[in-house]
Amino acid sequence: MSALDRVVVVLGGAGTVGSGIVQSLLERGFQVAVISRDGNRLEKLKSFVPALTRDRLHTLVGDVGSEEGAEAAKGALLQSVGKVTDVVSALGFSWWQGGPPPHADAAGAPPGGCRQAMRLALGRRE
Ligand SMILES: NC(=O)c1ccc[n+]([C@@H]2O[C@H](COP(=O)([O-])OP(=O)(O)OC[C@H]3O[C@@H](n4cnc5c(N)ncnc54)[C@H](OP(=O)(O)O)[C@@H]3O)[C@@H](O)[C@H]2O)c1
């Protein structure tokens, strides 16, 4: 599958780390989708990425920080973009940013926001 055929969701893509990942993926020819709770952050991201790649950047206002929010975002994204082939998580869920402590998912479950990331990825097969 060529890069252009792939739609990479970058969770946290409007953030400091995520926006760099988004830029890099766009420069390599991927389609990229970013969900943020803040439309202003998405506008800022659009102006940050190279103009020639902007038509491959799909943005959506949503909240993947809850199960319900992730489901809603998944539905809206699949409707607008059609598919999700890859998911990258750069969510700011670390404990020093108000997220769970690092040992919270010691039972083997993926930590914090990664759970929603995996839900989005697996959801494409539903
Ligand atoms: N920045 C660094 O130098 C650095 C260095 C090492 C590791 N890291 C790690 O990299 C990750 C990202 O850091 P960052 O500096 O890029 O953080 P950031 O700029 O604050 O961006 C964090 C992103 O996570 C999303 N997010 C945070 N809490 C959320 C919630 N409750 N529900 C939904 N989305 C939420 C935000 O979404 P919205 O757009 O909706 O606000 C934002 O896009 C963190 O895990 C951090 O620990 C960062």
TrEMBL record:
One of its GO terms (cellular component) is mitochondrion. One of its GO terms (biological process) is fatty acid beta-oxidation. GO terms for molecular function: 2,4-dienoyl-CoA reductase (NADPH) activity. Keywords: Oxidoreductase. The keyword DNA repair does not apply. Coiled coil: none annotated. Pfam families: adh_short (PF00106). PANTHER family: SHORT-CHAIN DEHYDROGENASE/REDUCTASE, SI:DKEY-238O13.4. This is NmrA-like domain-containing protein. It comes from Pelusios castaneus. The lineage of its organism: Eukaryota, Metazoa, Chordata, Craniata, Vertebrata.
